[in-house]
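Give me the fold.
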Amino acid sequence: MSRLFGSVRSRATLGATLVVAVALVAAGTAVLLSLRSNLIGEAGTRAERSARAVAAELAARVPYDRLSGLDGDNGPVQIVGRDGGLVAASEDLERISGTATGEVTPKPSAPAPGDDPDDADDGDDPDDGTDGTDGTDGTDGDDAEGSDGSGGSDESLAPGEIARGTTFNNGSATIDGDAEDYRFAAVDVRTLDRGRLTVHAGAPLAAEHGAVATSLTAMLIGLPLLLGVVAGVTWLVTGRALRPVEGIRREMAAITASEDLARRVPEPATHDEVARLARTTNETLAALEASVERQRRFVADASHELRSPIASLRTQLEVAAAHPELLDLDGAVEDTVRLQRLAADLLLLARLDAGERPADARVDLAALAREEAAGRTGVTVDAEPAEVSGSRGQLGRVLANLLDNARRHARERVTVTVRREGAWAVLGVADDGEGVAEADRERIFERFVRLDAARSRDDGGAGLGLAIARDVAVRHGGTLTAGAAPGGGALFELRLPSAGRTRHG
């Protein structure tokens, strides 16, 4: 189960289905409540119409046995006197609840003295109105209301007048053996001969119950079907959308298993997020392939470069061990120093490749240039103060490598310049040699590259100086480029952000 819902496809399907289910349940509940309210309101209107029709006949002094509303055809009717006793009721009424009284057998009583037409009764008697219409007799009194907001039980009525207010309650009744739920309406009327009476008339709620039950059944059947359709469509659409992602995953798994970084994942012919993911993945694979290839070449070249001084030093030591008089002490020292420098260069490159961040000290390039140029013949410095942030040791190594390279190729002189250009500090190293061909101005920054194949290793070094210089420049947020000097020869320019600017490396 956890594996099933661990996929994006299953989670998307489940989420969409749950959202639609919540929306449908909320909408269905609102529809059912609205339908029930409307149907109950219609039943209340019919009950009120029946109650007022009976009240009008009572106001017209129609005898109880001739009231048209008591035949039971339009629902149960009760007429309750001032004292709460039942004075008239529908034919065949066997049981009733939700009205002023549960009695079904009329007990006519004489009019009270205060109900005589000549008696100035103002209707303020506490017992005036309908007793029990507050819904306490098994009804929901919360929906009792007067049509004009008066409540229908506290109006002062003149003889022959019908109250404007109507009180509603829900209840039930049994007529001739048929039991049903009803919506009851209570209307007060003041008669000329029988005093104040309350008419309770009911309208059946069978239509409301039937409509609500039918709607609920339809929803209970339709909701699962609709949710099944939503889940199925979401599952299919999500699967189709994620199919390219699965293809990318399979290809990446194959690349991992085969360790063949030359392979690429399939790119969909679309412009969506999946296509961008595939393109980014292929770009990452290309960068990884280039990095691994560069690392392999680096290891191979380093092994080759280390083999020569180690072999030379071993040979000299073996000869010295057999023939001490033939020991070339100067050569052994020279090979040792060369081996030490090469090891230091390799360690520095390894730290740079590992992402080592330079220090954040302030370095004056002008002072650094004069310091590195001191003691070197043929080197002149023309520098203005220009501070940068970084590692003084690494920047000194860059300048030393550039001076060593320029000194090897210069005829007579090397010139170092330092200037400011806006937010940049620019250090230039120029020589008066033959220069660097434009086609080789980028290749010379590759590791272990020597343009002069005839030059000896002792004179040309291991081919790491310029590679180290560029890597350090990049780590300091700057650039190192090769070009042509104004007076001929090569010009190397180091551009670094002035102190205070954020490095981008």
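The two ends are 47 Å apart (CA to CA).
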